[in-house]
Amino acid sequence: MPEERKYWVPALEKADNVLAVLAAEPGRHKLIDLSKRLEINKSSMFSLLGTMETLQWVKRGEGDTYSLGHAFAAYGSSYAKGYDLSRSFQAEAVTARDRLQETVQLAKLEGNQVLYLGKLEALSPVRLQSEPGMLLPAHATALGKAMLARLGEDELLRLYPDDELKALTPHTIPTREALFRQLQAIREQGYAVDEQESVMGFRCVAAAIRGGEGQAIGAVSCSMLLHQWEAKGEEAKAEMQALARRLSMQR
């Protein structure tokens, strides 16, 4: 038996699986649906849901469908108060940096700009100019575009009242219309790419970190020289999405 499962509690694993389904699809599943989906017999599922309902982990609504209960609002609020994104980034990003051997960065959105919060550098003679505390236009960075893609149309129009956008390089997205088209693609694929849009000679991939309500509370990115992208680009996309999921409060 693997060491990590030596003291495993199967009932808790089943409860966790139920919570994962209800978090992703609230109010859509009855007892029988959960029983079939998770391959737990109806008697066991009845006892499990009854206990979880008493603990306010789940609640039963109209049509006898289930969703997360009030207890998780309190748990989530407490977790959010103690959540230090920068510290979590420093701990979690090491794996991605070491696998890719490239610099990994953390930023958050400040209006229509990105504010760099953290940086884990790879051992390389080439250093990125961006540093914690620096601001750059969001539309010109993968980090910024990943976070902008989580915003609604009204908020985007407020941030970008004019169609023309400031250019940092010849490759920067030139117009609001072009930016909004790219944001739709980012929503569908789950990551953003910077094609020499902020710095010539570099490509960058980023993914948004989600808060408890699905909003972007930050983003992580990996940048590399153009000639390295063909070999590492796909892996970098996967690593940044995985890192963003680990840092997200909504899993």
Structure explained in plain terms:
This protein is α+β, with helices and mostly antiparallel strands and 251 residues long. The protein has 2 domains: 3-79, Arc Repressor Mutant, subunit A (Orthogonal Bundle); 83-247, 2-Layer Sandwich (Beta-Lactamase), CATH 3.30.450.40. It is built from 9 helices and 8 strands. The protein has helices spanning 10-24, 31-38, 42-54, 71-82, 85-100, 142-148, 153-159, 176-189, 226-247; strands at residues 58-60, 66-68, 104-110, 113-120, 135-137, 192-195, 202-210, 216-225. The strands form 2 sheets. Strands 5-4-3-8-7-6 form a 6-stranded antiparallel β-sheet. It has a two-stranded antiparallel sheet with strand order 1-2. Strand 6 and strand 7 (202-210) form a beta hairpin. The radius of gyration is 21 Å and the shape is elongated. The mean pLDDT is 89. Residues 9-70 form the HTH iclR-type domain. Keywords: DNA-binding, Transcription, Transcription regulation. GO terms for molecular function: DNA binding; DNA-binding transcription factor activity. InterPro entries: GAF-like_dom_sf, HTH_MetabolicPath_Reg, Tscrpt_reg_IclR_C, Tscrpt_reg_IclR_N, WH-like_DNA-bd_sf, WH_DNA-bd_sf.
Using brief descriptors, characterize the structure shown.
Arc Repressor Mutant, subunit A; 8 strands; alpha+beta; Beta-Lactamase; two-stranded antiparallel sheet; 6-stranded antiparallel beta sheet; elongated
Give the H and E element order: HHHEEHHEEEHHHEEEH
Low-confidence stretches: none
CATH class of the largest domain: Alpha Beta
- Supply the helix-strand structural class: alpha+beta
Helix content: 40-55%
**CATH fold category name of the largest domain:** Beta-Lactamase
Q: DSSP helix count?
A: 9
Distance linking N and C termini: 28 Å
Q: Give the integer mean of the pLDDT values.
A: 89
Please state roughly what percent of the residues sit in beta strands, choosing from under 5%, 5-15%, 15-25%, 25-35%, 35-45% or over 45%.
Answer: 15-25%
Overall 3D form: elongated
Task: Give the radius of gyration.
Answer: 21 Å
CATH superfamily of the largest domain: GAF domain
